[in-house]
Design brief:
single chain, mainly alpha, 2 domains, Transcription factor domain-containing protein
Length: 274
């Protein structure tokens, strides 16, 4: 499945490579994603027992990979010259990213413990969710998404390999802090600066021992750990500060605004296209 996912991701990039208007290619991308989904779900293991641990692992992994590929198609980890997602696309990015993170935070079933190593930091889903929360802070589902994002940040901050250099994690930490500061603002409709807000903050979720020690939870949100300070957040995202609204509105640049938030993030990480 991992190999097929790599091939699918490469083909998605090739479809959009050199095309001036990515929307013209969106039908091809959707077809490729559907083809990938069908192929992954049709795979079988050598153990022909539906409730066997290996078959259970295959089904769970297939569902996770399918959703992750949908997110990668809409939020690639490298910059694009324009929004590649058409306004008629009805895939719920915030909901899907939340579900990916939530699934990976769940305890591993006892029967799947032999494959506990087969897991990795879901940095992409976390970054996607935080970028969505930047521009959709008042949606009904945003509270739950924020809790999952906070738990995931705490969990992965201790695992990510570049914690000292911060080449990947620093932009994610910056996004996390921006979202926190934005949610302190009681009214973003007249937003003048994304970094300004009151001290009324949404409750921080309780994190179990499986995620991290309670004595150092707050340290993970200290920007000095990532070589940053609060002044770094006073620089507004390019082209985004005038678009953030208290209610996500599909009729008013609802498709473009989340893309701007994501584009600012990938500008920070500065990954090159494959």
């Amino acid at each position: 499945m991992i190999y097929e996912a790599m091939i699918c991701q490469r083909r998605l990039y090739e479809i959009s490579d050199g095309v001036q208007n990515g929307w013209e290619q969106w039908t091809k991308k959707v077809g490729l994603l559907n083809e990938f989904k069908t192929s992954i779900l049709s795979e079988k293991t050598n153990v022909h027992i539906y409730d066997s641990p290996l078959e259970m692992l295959r089904r769970m992994s297939a569902q996770k990979i399918i959703v992750s590929m949908q997110l990668l198609a809409r939020r690639p980890p490298y910059r694009q010259p324009h929004n590649i997602v058409p306004p008629w696309d009805d895939f719920d990015i915030m909901k899907s990213a939340t579900e990916v993170l939530e699934q990976h935070l769940q305890p591993i079933p006892v029967e799947l413990q032999p494959w506990a190593w087969k897991n990795w930091v879901q940095w992409h889903a976390l970054a996607v969710l935080l970028a969505e929360l930047m521009v959709r802070p008042q949606e009904p589902s945003s509270d739950r998404s924020y809790i999952i994002a906070t738990q995931s940040f705490r969990h992965y901050a201790r695992l990510v390999a570049d914690s000292e250099s911060g080449l990947l994690w620093k932009p994610i930490a910056k996004l996390m802090r921006r979202v926190q500061r934005l949610r302190k603002t009681p009214d973003t409709a007249g937003n003048k600066n994304l970094a300004i807000g009151t001290e009324t903050v949404f409750p921080v979720p309780i994190v179990t021992e499986q995620t991290c020690s309670s004595t150092s939870n707050n340290d993970l949100f200290d920007l000095s750990n990532w070589g940053m300070n609060e002044d770094d957040l006073n620089v507004p995202f390019l082209g985004l500060e005038d678009h953030v609204r208290p209610q996500y509105n599909d009729n008013e640049d609802g498709n473009e605004t989340p893309w701007l938030a994501w584009d600012n993030f990938v500008r920070d990480i500065n990954f090159s296209p494959p």
